[in-house]
Design a protein that fits this description.
By secondary structure, the protein is mainly alpha-helical. The chain is 73% helix and 0% strand. Helix 2 (21-33) packs antiparallel against helix 7, helix 3 packs antiparallel against helix 9 and helix 6 runs antiparallel to helix 10. The N and C termini lie far apart (57 Å). Pfam families: Aa_trans (PF01490). Its main location: membrane.
Length: 422
């Protein structure tokens, strides 16, 4: 039996899970929401971390009331939902978490392919179809399949360390390059006022950057002492905000509305930027593996696949990646999927379900266990988090769906393939 993770290593996993595609899109998200994006980032960071600590406490309550949860659970998030909201709540939560992580991992594939194609074109000065990101989807997807066959996060802890190191280095390169006096920086950046539509999309993008709650219980589940998960949250979110704010502010201030969806593809190409892109690809590869793991475990439990390494596990996880590749080919714009996932499923998993489940567990006095109480200020704040998540999530989802439907009639990788073969 393997020893559980230390809370410091768990914090690395939290940063690795969140600091992937999210921070690259933050400068563009500020374009959508305007200067209100800065207080939104601060509020989201505090609110999500507050709710995440309550999510961690929820699992500690499960351990306290039902001793079987002291052993690692295959689906910890769903177990919290089951004990707090019953079997129906468990099923709804399972669908939400699985689709959330499935969609997030799909975003990572698109972003990896986009940056890999950029690297190859920079190295060869060739912008032909051979280095199109749509071509990269097939190559990258097939290459990722064997890595998804791994077990649980503690089986590939090295991925979190690599991801955090790569992100920190990329952040430094981005900031230095932005203030190095690049020719691409406009003389007079424009900061347009947000519209209702753009604000809704920006809400989803910012929330996506902080939306790793669906994986948090899986990380906590592999800890040696799960009651210390709150320390992991503090360390992880402090590290995240330290990287997010400088990138978002510098990109938005210097480029204004000229910033692209991906800040790394906005700055001028250079050797340092090439290294940063390569490091971020490493980060996203590691984050993809971490995100896919809970999805795979849930599907395997539904299909009654043994927990040990076997051919059925390999088949299921391979098919999952193939489905993600198909979506990438159909909608190759990572920003569109990011806005949709951030505004809908991540909102549920991060803003709505954790406070709701925690309050229901606290208020459950039906068993012989120790009765717990909650301060009124804490309950009010948790309710406010739910309300903000629901209102913002609904608006963001509606706007994102409209954008995706409109874009689907214009261009996909299938039309690109046809163009390249002509």
């Amino acid at each position: 039996k393997k020893k559980g993770m230390h809370y410091g290593l768990a914090a690395f996993f939290l940063v690795a899970q969140m600091a992937g595609a999210g921070f690259l899109a933050l400068p563009n998200a500020l374009v959508d929401v305007g200067w209100l994006g800065i207080p939104m980032m601060l509020l989201f960071c505090f609110s999500v971390s507050f709710a995440a600590i309550r999510l961690g406490r929820s699992y500690v309550i499960l351990e306290e009331r039902w001793p079987e949860y002291k052993e690692p659970a295959r689906q910890p998030y769903m177990e919290i939902a089951y004990r707090s909201m019953g079997s129906t709540g468990r099923k709804l939560t399972m669908v939400t978490v699985v689709v959330n992580l499935f969609g997030s991992a799909t975003v990572f594939i698109i972003l990896i392919c986009e940056m890999l194609a950029s690297l190859l074109m920079y190295a060869t000065s060739d912008d032909s179809c051979a280095f199109n990101k749509c071509q990269m989807v097939i190559i990258v997807g097939v290459a990722l399949i064997p890595f998804t066959w791994l077990g649980t996060p503690k089986d590939f802890w090295q991925a979190s360390v690599l991801a955090v190191t790569a992100t920190a280095a990329a952040v430094v390169v981005i900031i230095v390059e932005i203030f190095a006096g690049q020719e691409s920086i406009p003389d007079h950046p424009r900061y347009p006022n947000p519209t209702v539509s753009s604000f809704s999309l920006g809400f989803g993008s910012i929330l996506f950057a902080y939306g790793g709650a669906a994986v948090f219980p899986t990380i906590q589940n592999d800890m040696e002492d799960r009651s210390l998960f709150w320390k992991s949250i503090y360390i992880g979110f402090t590290g995240i905000q330290t990287m997010y704010l400088p990138v978002a502010l510098s990109g938005y201030i210097m480029y204004g509305d000229q910033v692209k969806d991906n800040i790394l593809l906005t700055v001028d190409s250079s050797a340092a930027v090439t290294v940063a892109i390569a490091l971020q690809i490493v980060n996203l590869l590691c984050t993809f593996i971490i995100s896919c793991n809970p999805v795979s475990q849930t599907i395997e439990d539904v299909l009654n696949i043994p927990h040990n390494f076997n051919w059925r596990r390999c088949v299921v996880r391979s098919v999952t990646v193939l489905l993600q590749m198909l979506i990438c080919l159909a909608i190759p714009d990572f920003g569109l999927i990011l806005n949709l996932i951030g505004g809908s499923l991540i909102t549920l998993c991060t803003f709505v379900l954790p406070p709701l489940m925690y309050m229901r567990l606290i208020d459950d006095h039906s068993g012989p266990w120790k009765h717990r109480t909650m301060a009124m200020w804490e309950r009010i704040f948790l309710v406010e988090i739910i309300i903000v998540g629901v209102i913002g999530g609904v608006c963001s989802t509606i706007t994102a769906v409209y954008e995706i439907v409109e874009a689907s009639f214009q261009e996909s990788c299938f039309t690109t393939f046809s163009h390249c073969t002509e």
